[in-house]
Structures are given as structure tokens and as C-alpha cells.
Amino acid sequence: MTVKEKRLPSEGSKTLQQEEQQSTGLISRSSLIRRLNRGREARARFVESHLNKSLAFQIRSLRDREQWTQTQFAEKLGMKHPNNVSARLENPNYGKHTLTTLKKIAATCDVGLVVWFVPFRRLVDWATGTPHKDTGLSPAFHDIPAFDHDPGIRAIQAKEAEEDKLVAELGSWQDERLPKKQPEPASFLGPIPLASEMSGAEAQAG
Questions:
Q1: What is the pLDDT of residues 87-100, one digit of tens each?
Q2: Which terminus of the chain is less hemmed in, N or C, by CB atoms within 10 Å?
Q3: How far, rounded to the nearest angstrom, does the alpha carbon of residue 27 sit from its chain's CA centroid?
Q4: How far is CA 42 from CA 34, 46, 142, 156, in A?
């Protein structure tokens, strides 16, 4: 029984890692941008889904780091019902975390908290694991372009269009270099029948 209890945290952590990889797995920038290009509603759904999952898994990871049960975590946050931890805070489908609750979690777990709006280029880099240079609280921090006017998104699209063009040109060049199959010479007499296929008269004439 004791051995089983000691294994529970590690098994839980493994499950959490598997869920994180499944729910926040990195995707390519091109596929993500194609998804965002579907329209404003598609972009809003992606932002909401990405935010909900990131918060839920981070909160659970912080609790696991401290080795707190859901009851202990709820008490430290001043929550009356421990089930709210799993049903709300650590649920990626909940999506109603308040700033007040997030600030309580940050203070309880002794971590920083950052909440800001960003250009889609920054979100795309973040979601795909692409290195991004952070300029901090520069003037650009307060000048946030919409998706259709984001120069970063346009630059990515232009680069990928150029890469697609090069790939197409390379494929065409390779097709031209391949030896072309020569047509077989036409036979006017047709195939010669086997002896077994010839009639008796034809066989005797042969």
C-alpha cells in the first residue's frame, strides 16, 4: 500500500505530461497560419482554446510542484469547495479564470504573472516553439496590429510562398531531367499465336 502511494505522484506527473503534449503539441507555422486565415471567428477560437489549455495545465503543474492535494490547494486559495480546483482551475474546458484568481495563484505559488495582448505573429511563434526576440516594454509593446495588418504575419506568408515556388520549380526541373520513356515500335502483324492456340488446319499449313 505504501509503495502504491509513493508511485501515485510520478504516475500523475506522467499523465500530466502526456496531456500537455497532446493538448499543446507544437504545430508548424504554415499550418497554424492557414488555420488563422479562415477568418476572425477561427482566430478567436484558437486564442480562447490556447489560453484555456495553457492556464489549466500550468495551474496543475504548479500544484504538482508543491505536492499539494486539491483540498490543500483550495484552502490556500480560500476556495470553499476543493472540487473547484479540478472542475474549474485545472479544467482546460472551463475557460472562466478571473484575474483575481490568477493573482491569488501566483502569490500562493510564488511565481510571476503576465497578462497582455500580443500581435498574432508573437502568438504564432509561441504556439509553434519558434524563437522570438522580446523587446520588452518598447513603443512596439503598445502598438498591436490586427491580424490583417500584422507585418510579421505578412513576412511569414511571403517567405512560405517563396519556398513553395522554389519547391515547385525544383520539382519541374527534376521532371525535365528524368529520361523519357520511348514508345514501343508498332507491330503491324500483331502477336504470333502459340501452336496450341492455332486451329488444326493452320497447324498443318504451318
A1: 899 999 999 999 99
A2: N
A3: 3
A4: 10, 6, 24, 19
